[in-house]
Amino acid sequence: MQIGELITIITEWAVLHLLSIVIAIFILAIGWAMARFMSRRVVKRMTQDKDADKTMASFIAQITRYAIYVVTSMLALIILGVESTALIAVLGGAALAITLGLRGMLANVAAGVMMITLRPMSIGDYIVGTGASGTITELGLFNMLLKTPDGLYVFVPNSQIWGKAITNYSHEPQRRIDIEINITYQASIELARKTLLSVINDNDRVLPDPKPLVIVNQLGSYSVVMLLRCWVNTSDHFTVKAEITEQIKLNFDKTGVEFAHLEFESIHENRR
To answer: How many CB atoms lie within 10 A of CB 136?
Structure first.
């Protein structure tokens, strides 16, 4: 068949079914708008309560949106004269082709369903996976959206996260802070311990249980390695660790406890 003949046939069919085409386009437009409206509505209704599950709300909203897309597309094809039995047969063949050709996409869907079911993470959690890390802003049917601490947007297929080890830094309500401090062999261990404990006790966000701990963790070649260990609420971890680290330096300056790096540098220079 010549291209010109094909164009003529398509033009004649379009003129003959002009009203059906207009109605089909109208249905698609309404369906698109309804899908977006309903998905937002689902999220709004499911997240009204203070303890609402935002992860499930986002997932259900995506399923609702895609379901409306499929229904309105089928309705538009029927309006254009495609028989329902033929449409079902075509959809069956298309489903088979999609299954074979888009196995990666189906793997993403399966991974998304498993993550929603088993809940190793939720929206708002900070995770570290293979090749991606950040705070989860959306967990959908096909992918996950992460926001990094420096404000970058990361799009991650679900299968990439689900198929590998995941570290969730926000899952537990409390986290431990471990800080190693190197002091000189001339410094008083008891004074260093007393100074470190005062730093912990002066911080109101350090939890009393489990009890904070300051021990000699190691005797190094050039230093005594002290270990400070305490527990805080997960949301306070970064802030409290920074505060304690700074206060250790300030309190050591006041009490005269020497950090070991000064001695190490002098030994290193003497060896030259």
So the answer is: 23
pLDDT band (50, 70, 90) for residue 104: low
Are 160 and 178 members of one domain? no
Q: How far apart are CA 97 and CA 103, in angstroms?
A: 10
Whether residue 144 sits in one domain with residue 96: no
Assigned domain for 106 exists: no
Closest CA to 25 of 78, 82, 76: 76
Same domain, 162 and 226: no
Whether residues 159 and 184 fall in one domain: no
| pLDDT at residue number 102 | 56
Position 263 confidence tier, pLDDT thresholds 50, 70, 90: very low
Per-residue pLDDT at 80 exceeds 90: no
50 shares its domain with 68: yes
Q: Rounded to two decimals, what is the model's pTM?
A: 0.64
